[in-house]
Fold this protein.
Amino acid sequence: MEIILVNFLIINAKNKYVCGIIGFITNNSEASKIAFRCLKNLEYRGYDSCGGASLHEGMIIFKKGVGKIDEVEEKLRLSELPGNVVIYHTRWATHGKVSERNAHPHFDCKKELAIVHNGIIENFLEIKKELEKKGHEFKSETDTEIIAHLIEDMLKEKGNVFDATVSALKLLEGSYALLVLHKGFEGMIAARKGSPLVLGVAENGLFASSDIPSFLEFTRNVVYLKDGDVALLKPDEFRIFNLYEEKWINRQIDTVEWDIEKAKKGEFEHYMLKEICEQVETIKRAIMQDERIINDVVKEMIKARGVFFVGCGTSYHACVAASYIFSKIANMHVNVVLASEFPNFEHFICKDTLVFAVSQSGETYDVLEAVRAARKRNAKVISIVNVMGSTLTNESDKFLLMNAGPEISVVATKTYTAQLALLSLLAYALVGKIDECKDKLNYLWNIIYHLTARSTREKIKELAEKLRNAEHIFCIGRGLQYATAMEASLKIKEVSYIHAEALAGGELKHGTLALIENDVPCIVFVSKENEKEILSNAIEIKSRGGKIIGVASENNKVFDEWIKVPEASIFNPIIQIIPIQLLAYYLAVLRGCDPDKPRNLAKSVTVK
Ligand code: F1P
């Protein structure tokens, strides 16, 4: 597999985006209606501004504006671009101005060419200077715009937009998923390097998009583009040229097996709630793995001199929980490192090290950088990912899929428990007990069914009513339950914006007890293994005025509120987090926050 070593230079923080792109080419004039529906499905990738361009009667027509997609649609009728080929973009600026000027599409000097882009062009300043010398005028502060001008420049020499695009791409450093329209070309160009881009092959046309769910209602046939691919799309055919191989190549059409309904909200008000409830099924799906691959992974683990687990956010918490599980079940020590902190430890990596990269999206920048650093030192990389065809699957030696289906809500819920289930399976596989693990995990089905049932949801909502005005919420646990406390506090923070903090039970006496004041809610995760110790922590908190919410199999007089979750020993993390995911969800809703699109957070964090 190919490794792209991106030398990441922060040239200009203003030009770092997380965003989504979609293009559609068809034989009829419905292109923009269909593509706009797909754009809406990409909103989770970014939603501060958006725009689109189409080709109509030999002219580029475009619209763009600031705001969420619906707001821009209301003002500009974005969905009504004429013509049979259209490209759209939804943007999420992590730094710098959100403005109409910076919204995509971007153009060449004469507005004969339009492009949308996801990624970062690192050498854009050098290229911009060269182009300015040649008389090009730039309208935005973005790195994207230089691509349009560069293609314009190359066109003089090459004479056709495809060859000009290929030549321009060869000069770019950094990452891109790119769609190009040109007034003299009845088609669309799609290119990818380091950012996600897939083709959808429908009966009535071709899609190019940042993800599959965006167009899934129109087709299940997909082509996973690889780095260096430049695709030339016509309404009923496509060809792919690879920049590195310098030739036209074949890529197979795969069929996506997911159910279309899985990518929609169904009866639920928000994706977050829907995805929490899906856990009844997703745990089972996570462990439906090819045992030959699991056994290969196990061999790699046994052979390895040092195993690292890296991830960010929720995925990192799954790694923390896994470190306890591997220790308890397989008597194996694993190093857990936040992907963003990996540079501080990477000198320990050698060719015999095994690195597990855990990421729902497979696009998280810090995780990809950790993987690239590990591969540079010749370590083996196995990733645990939810998104097939993501950059991480391309850049790992092996990958295991979580099989959780698309997770649309920005916050991770079902993929967290899928990660835990899959990691547990690996720990059991290490000691030859795969079947025992599967039996135990399948047994959780009934528990999860009750934990996500309407009646439980109502009770958790009542609890959320009581907590909705809290300024702080503390979560405590010991051992495996400490990992759950970390994930619980992240969920609460991410969606409800209440300050929540995880404390290890044993650490209270080392200072953090000072934080407990009258009526401060504290969620206590109890397991049989350390029941005595954690309940004594709960008593310490209660005697200082704290309100105790016990997540436990049995009630206890120290609890002010009790969330009943049966004891599941090593699998406690999977079931104990579910009521707190629900609690976070209801806290968000009651406080008027959108749980699917929390502020300052994007689903795929593709920036440093
Ligand atoms: C990691 C992560 C998520 C979080 C949010 C931002 O993503 O921190 O845990 O909920 O979506 O990104 P990933 O690497 O697991 O895709």
